[in-house]
Please model this.
Amino acid sequence: MIFDSHTHLNLAAFDKDRREVIKKLKPEGIWVINVGTCLETSQKAITIAKDNKNCWATVGLHPSHLIPAKKDENEISEKNLADSNSVFLKPEIFDERFEALLEESKVVAVGECGLDYSYLNNFSSEEREEYERVEEEEFRKQVQAAKRYHLPLCLHIRDLYEDALGILDEESYEDKAVFHFFTGNKIQAEQIIKKGFYISFSGVITYSQKMDEVVEKAPLGKILIETDAPYVAPEPYRGKRNEPIYVKEVAKKIAEIKKLPLKDIEEATFQNARRLFNI
Ligand SMILES: [Zn+2]
Model:
């Protein structure tokens, strides 16, 4: 069995062939968690989870939805946009509508939420300062919600690992969490794991040797694997639309780096995901 612990079959990139993509997973023994990025995609993740035995959902608000960001046609289809004339998405806040979704069945985590200032590059310094504040505030709200609903956190943190750990500390967050799409260094990986949290590796580890040392040192009991589909397909599918079935390439790369049988990587990461998300 294999767990793609972070994917997005709930996004518009799969609107045309979602059923076929999911159908391919069953014979391969692949289970998936479809991660919510805003209200609409969180709702969609829940619907998919209710319809498919091997799918679960998370509910959360991604940092890119806190600002008037450019629309991503892979994420939300044009027909679902309230204002299709605008090239920008309307910013959202994590409010009671999200909290209501946390009570739905098959919701296994809060997120993806966190810190990512890479979306703020085109703003003025005043706007930047304001949006950094908003990111932090919305992140703290979701950490608090995870505590209240006894759900783990699915974290989207770009570069700002120390800041995120600081916020989790200040919020006295002692439950489970995963740092998805981990691309930090070995010291940051150690700090995260020392806190009892998990790190998740994506297709990016197949692109170069940059992450090899981190992968090699990361304890098998603390790692997950993911595709983050439809984005960042692993080699040899780089550049194509990513799919959960390609999660095997991430497992293969870890097996190669750790010099362990592929089965051991698949089994350990599968069990880790089940333990983390209480599945
Ligand atoms: Zn994601």
Remarks:
- The chain has a mean pLDDT of 95.
